[in-house]
Amino acid sequence: MIWFYRLLFLPVLLFALPYYGWRMYRRGGYRHDFHHRFGLIDRPPPKRPGIKRVWIQAVSVGEIRALTPLVDALHALPGVELIITTTTSTGYKILREEFAPKVLKVGIFPLDFCPFSRNSWRRLDPDLAILMEAELWPEHLYQAHRRKVPVLLINGRMSDRSFRRYQKLPIVSRRLMKRLSGLLAATPNDGKRFLALGANPATTAVTGSMKLDVEVAPVLSPDEVTTLHREMGFTTEGQPAPLVLLGSSTWPGEEKLLVETLKDALTAGIDARLLIIPRHAERRGEIIELLDKQPLPWHLRTRDKQAPAATKIYVADTTGEMVRLSQAGTLAYIGKSLPPNDGGQTPVEAAALGLPLVYGPHMSNFRHICRQLEEAGAARKCPDAATVKAVLLELLKNSARREEMATAGRAWHAANRGATARIVERVRQQLGK
Predict the structure, then answer these.
(1) Which of 154, 323, 334, 352 would be 413's cystine partner, CB 3.0–4.6 Å?
(2) For the chain, what is the mean pLDDT?
């Protein structure tokens, strides 16, 4: 199978290169250490006797943030050194700035083509490879198999789309599952899906989601939130705090809905503002085009963090500030949940911060978490855009209901932590520590 994959990979890569090249150009930051993608990652210091080297791969910012407690725990283990790679430029920026002091090396994951993957494996030479969520790269797994290096998939997730694709290729899915030494699923449903695709029941377990263990910080004081509102131009000294509708990690089409919701709220006499945090900052051009066509005063954070007074819409088109800026919100709409978007963005941090949550029907990437949030009374799932708007307006008018949902979200988050400790124990067993 691996030879067929290798023969197929190169033409597919060449065909897709213009699209991904354009995406890289738009997002920026991809030039930094681009040679890592060809397996030319700088060699770490030679391995030392008695030291186990662990290579962890996490795709992007969300997975890297979820890694924080695991990295801290493994960093504290004697005789363990860590190498962490990522795929995105934003993820790599966070690795360099926040993780580099704790680990042996950070880098960019190579393209999954034989010479590139082989180069990285030769240079990094790990004793254990850890993959996050759904990173089942055939060449990467093959290189581990050749070297008899165990591979753990942690925080394992299997989306609806990926599950359907793997079901169509049962030979491929079984071969990939066979390459894993252990599989730690985020939810019972994910565990069932991996088992259906051929995962070994003896080495598969449900440990919970590491994303629930992330320490949500910094937590702002009421005075700091007030300062943030003034920075956004939502209020001035002596004015009461407005209600702020947060668009958390929005995707195309969702900003338009939120702007319309804000207009309806203002028409109804509600003192409201809108904070938009788009999932991809490079979409600022189309967001600017949208906001230029409507009458409410708006401001772009990259132009100046301090917005003019009386700003009604603030667009936080930056990266790495999600947690801090979200605390300006009164309630949150979770992005990528209305068609044509699908899968949903994480609701975890917003729930932990005590923001009442509203989202559309397409939250399949967080199905188990969303079901728990809805049952706890912390979130409202809506079947369509019209219902999203109606529920947001209803909550803007109902402070008691918002407080109930906020309390429920915080309680849910506190009660569902502990996945990292279970995963650390499994890693210790694998390393013989």
Answers:
(1) 352
(2) 93
